[in-house]
Write a structure and sequence with these properties.
With 77 residues, the chain is an alpha+beta fold. It has one helix at 2-21, and strands spanning 41-42, 45-46, 49-50, 55-56. It has a domain at 39-77. Helix content is 26%, strand content 10%. A hairpin with a 2-residue loop joins strand 2 (45-46) and strand 3.
Length: 77
């Protein structure tokens, strides 16, 4: 039984290899290091819930800002 499961997983993994090789190149439009980030506005959240007013990046000008994209990490999600 274990051999069947291992072979099935191996077949699935190997079937994805040709698909990965055929992907179109991704256009990367990164900002150069040292460039000022564009002003963005997002819905903020704390451990107590969503903040009612949007948070703007320009509100934190001159401060260190960390953007966390793991929105379900500390929530009931």
């Amino acid at each position: 039984m274990k051999h069947v499961v291992v072979l099935a997983l191996l077949a699935v993994a190997l079937s994805a290899v040709p698909a990965a090789a055929q992907r179109a190149p991704i256009e990367q439009n990164f900002l150069p290091v040292g460039t000022m980030a564009p002003d963005i506005s997002v819905t903020g959240a704390t451990r107590y819930g969503v903040i009612q007013t949007p948070v703007k990046l320009s509100d934190f000008r001159g401060e260190t800002v960390v953007l966390a994209f793991f929105f379900r990490a500390r929530t009931r999600g």
